[in-house]
Design a protein that fits this description.
seven-stranded antiparallel sheet; Jelly Rolls; mainly beta; ten-stranded mixed sheet
């Protein structure tokens, strides 16, 4: 996701890289109001219950973990309980749109963040909601109260768990429709090299507008690709990125299935995987940080600890600027489901992580 936690207020308001527009209401029944979180449901909510059906327990599926590479499990969440584990996750509350003109307020309510039947549900609804402009921990405070036309969910391990190098994977079922933007990604625990994106960003998985019209996609099923990326360089607007996208496996049914998304990160290298297939590699010569000479530190900014996040954005520059363009209110409500997330460390090469990576000799 572009332009996240470390931008200043004026940067966030200045960015409009896609087909941007105002919030749009919908006739879809919003979820019931809740007293949780710091925001308030100014629309009054509904007593009609959750318009999204409770998901079934995920079918058993392959985890695609590589055998014999000496990756050792160091952190995980299987989402087996009935509540989000707050020792592992912080729930973001903010309405600023992520600097990408996204249309949601992220809330700390069960209506938007729920653990049920073995999955983490991040649910996005058409719902008038007022909450704090910026997330907790924002350098200059929480900002003003902002009203958006949608709510959604975002969780992160910030200040609870972070890692320098490892293998990070999650099994997920993604939403569909023009304007949907789920992500599984990482930001630096400390801005060692400066604000976004001088200290880097790791996008393990992003997928926009699944099922929407797509002239460049394989088959005749619409948008069926996910992507991975690195963001780096200087602070915005002097930032750069490298990205690629690939077709989800499973043919015409791919966008309705669970997939395992992962990245291996070692000193000077990243490998991206979907369902066990390595699809993309970036090496240290592909990135840089303006804050340090490449000859002095060729791996910066990706030589520091990063934390994990999942979220479901509503609209925003990336989704509204692709496929059919714009925003379709009929895409919501929708949700992203996370069956599990696992972090592995390299058993015999904890200092660089390279010995366990694909293509390397343990």
């Amino acid at each position: 996701m572009n332009i996240k936690l470390f931008l200043s207020t004026f940067i966030g308001s200045a960015l409009c890289l896609g087909a941007c527009g105002g919030g749009s209401s919908s006739t879809v029944t919003p979820p019931p109001s809740s007293s949780g979180g710091s925001g308030g449901n100014t629309g009054g909510g509904s007593s009609g219950g959750d318009p999204l059906p409770v998901p079934d327990t995920p079918p058993i599926g392959e985890d695609y973990h590589p055998a014999g590479k000496n990756w050792v499990l160091s952190w995980f969440d299987e989402f087996d309980g009935s509540n989000l584990d707050r020792t592992k996750w912080e729930v973001e509350e903010s309405c600023w749109g992520g600097g990408n003109n996204e249309r949601q307020c992220y809330t700390d309510r069960e209506e938007n963040v729920e653990v049920v039947n073995g999955v983490l549900r991040l649910k996005a609804y058409p719902e008038v909601f007022t909450g704090p402009e910026f997330p907790q921990g924002w350098p200059d405070g929480r900002g003003d109260q902002i009203t958006q036309q949608y709510t959604s969910g975002k969780v992160r391990t910030r200040e609870l768990a972070d890692w320098k190098y490892g293998r990070f994977s999650a099994r997920m079922k993604l939403p569909k429709g023009q304007g949907t933007w789920p992500a599984f990604w990482m930001l630096p625990a400390d801005n060692v090299y400066g604000g976004w994106a001088a200290s880097g960003e790791i996008d393990i998985m992003e997928a926009v507008n699944l099922g929407a019209s797509c002239n460049d996609c394989e088959g005749d099923v619409g948008e069926n690709r996910s992507s991975g990326a690195l963001h780096f360089g200087g602070e915005w607007p002097d930032n750069r990125f490298e990205t690629d996208k690939w077709t989800l496996s499973g043919g015409a049914e791919a966008v309705d299935q669970y997939h395992v998304f992962g990245v291996e990160w070692g000193e000077g290298r990243f490998n991206w995987f979907v369902d066990g297939v390595k699809l993309y590699t970036l090496n240290a010569e592909d990135w840089y940080s303006s804050s340090v000479e490449k000859t002095q530190n060729p791996n910066a900014p990706f030589d520091q600890a990063f934390y994990l996040m999942f979220n479901l954005a509503v609209g925003g520059n990336l989704s509204e600027g692709n496929n059919a363009g714009g925003f379709q209110v009929g895409s919501f409500p929708d949700e992203v489901l996370v069956d599990w997330v696992r972090v592995y460390q390299c058993e015999f090469d904890g200092s660089t992580g390279r010995a366990c990576m694909d293509g390397e000799t343990p």
